């Protein structure tokens, strides 16, 4: 039971931390690309703006990587954005492997506890016989508690693991779309449409 309890505490900590860190408005702030385009259009883009962009959010870090290389060719900008995007994606996936591991091993820990408990029950049968059903029933129920505990930890851990994986994929796609939009407008390959404007 102690390893299962430890896994449950770790899983709860990871779930809480990821729920906070993977909020859409934190990762992909609304109208961020429009704000960058306003800076460029008004010729206000400088190192101070780029620094604030880089430290503000994962999306801002990706945009800042492209803006630092804005005077180079399109391929250089895209390469810088992709490199930074890979690091941002890894940051979004932080602790998810641990959560997936907990979801996988806690049922096995529960099963192990049940097997050990059944071994103890059979050792009691060997020494005392089957004359007292209450002792046997208590030992069996105690053994099965570990399996129930393992499943109780594993099921929500697996659900949140899948949920976070899907959310990370969605956020990465949105960051890629916004970064490509910025590059294409800066390179004159598309017009800044109404979705790209800073709201009033």
From TrEMBL:
Query: Where is this protein primarily located?
Result: membrane
Location comes to: Cell membrane; Membrane
Per its UniProt record, what PANTHER family does this chain match?
A: MOTA_TOLQ_EXBB PROTON CHANNEL DOMAIN-CONTAINING PROTEIN, PROTEIN TOLQ
Q: Where are the transmembrane segments?
A: 95-123, 143-164
Q: Which UniProt keywords apply?
A: Cell membrane, Membrane, Protein transport, Transmembrane, Transmembrane helix, Transport
**Pfam families on file:** MotA_ExbB (PF01618)
One cellular component term from this protein's GO annotations in UniProt:
plasma membrane
Any idea what this protein is called?
A: MotA/TolQ/ExbB proton channel family protein
Query: What family name appears in the similarity comment?
Result: Belongs to the exbB/tolQ family.
Per the record, the GO terms for biological process are: protein import
- Which topology term describes how it sits in the membrane? Multi-pass membrane protein
Provide the MotA/TolQ/ExbB proton channel domain boundaries: 57-176
